[in-house]
Amino acid sequence: MKRLVTVMVCMAVMLLAGGARYAHAGPVMGGGADSEQKLKDRPDTKPLKCLGPINMSGGTVLPKGKVTACVKYKYVHKDELYDGSERMTGNYGGKYDRVNQQVQLTAKAGLFENFDARIMVPFWDKEFKRKAGNPPVHVDTDSVTGLGDIVVMGRYALMSQRKGDWINLAFGAGLKMPTGDADRENGPPFSNTHKYLGPGAQLGTGSWDPKFELGATKFLGRSRLDAHFMYTLPGEGSHGSRKGNQFKYNFGYGYALNKLFDLEIELNGVDQARHKYDHSMTVNTGGHTIYLTPGVHWKITDKCHFSVGAPIVIYRNLNGDHANPERNGKYALGESFQVIGRLGYSF
After folding, report:
1. Is 346 exposed, middle or buried (0-12, 13-18, 19+ CB in 10 A)?
2. How far apart are CA 261 and CA 106, in angstroms?
3. pLDDT tens digits for 171-210?
4. Measuring CA to CA, which residue among 230, 238, 161 is closest to residue 195?
5. Omega into 178 within 30° of 0, i.e. cis?
6. Over the stretch 204-214, which tens digit does the pLDDT of each residue have?
7. pTM score of the predicted model
8. How many Cβ atoms are within 10 Å of 164's Cβ, its own excluded?
9. Nearest 10 degrees: CA dihedral of 148, 145, 123, 293?
């Protein structure tokens, strides 16, 4: 994993170095052939703008008739055990190592004036390892692969800088639909306690989940400021399960270095209530986690870009139960590594 990180960093440095010679110095003020008036419509003198952040949304709405699409890949490795915010050592029962990989297809279209709609179609590959016995030893590696829960959302522009407002501000609402399989059963010996995997291990939750969002974006020359908030109200899921209510809050800053590359930094927070599993609330599920996400965008063409970011955990509290440390099968897994890649295209 360290080798992967090193390779990614080296690639980003080389790309930045290679793109530096394309940096745009801006139009020349005053009269003559190179005046700002005569250059304003040339493609190579368009104002530099930073692309949207990779691990969050913002407050912009697509103009009517415009369509964009992207493919996002997310890799999450969890192999650190926590009781609330306290990191634990040693061997414990239950899950001790998990890798989640997601490929998400997103399409967005400006349907009406000040209104766009988007659909997000996720495909998951989830693998986790579990221990059992006394002392605990590895007994099971389980994996689920396939379509997840599809999300559809609409967004309305309350304010727009394109129309002379000082900021972009948008409100949106949508629905996560139960399209992913939520019926994967546990294998022995875990099936003696729970027949089905928990809601976090399934491809879907089996529930209809309303979502509400508020986003803001401000362009300041080459800089871009973003803020985004989303609240999800999960419904009752399959087999007596229900994920906890979730609040996401995000703040981002991006800067266009030149015509080819942007740099960004994000603060991403996720606060989620405990999940219900087999008709009862479960400790060490949900929790409050804050990430710091640096990223780089490569603007391959005017219509195509590639972005990569690496969320780093700076705070976590995984809803532990310190009063009952003997419940060693209930410790939660926290991220030790995460990376996100995005390939986008505008039509």
Report:
1. middle
2. 23
3. 999 999 999 999 999 888 888 888 999 898 999 999 999 9
4. 238
5. no
6. 999 999 999 99
7. 0.84
8. 7
9. 100
